[in-house]
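Reviewers of the previous submission asked for a worked example of the structure-prediction workflow described in the proposal, so we include one complete record here. The input consisted solely of the amino acid sequence. No template or homolog information was supplied to the procedure at any stage.
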Amino acid sequence: MANGWTLERRAKQAELIKTWKPWERSTGPRTREGKAKASRNAYTGGTREVIRALRQALRAQQKALAEVGT
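From that input alone, the workflow returned the following structure tokens.
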């Protein structure tokens, strides 16, 4: 394999992980800072909502200007 993990190595690692069972000891963040950081994991920027709102405002302004101009 390109990353250095052979099928044998991968199988051995899978068996070891099954014996360790790290998911049973996983607790997630415990401090306020850790929880705040974890809550932002999926945040990607939110720019789409801002652009959508600006576009709507510009359309409303163009409509108002068109009505005043006629």
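The helical segments are 7-20, 32-39, 47-69. We consider this example representative of the routine output the project will generate in years two and three.
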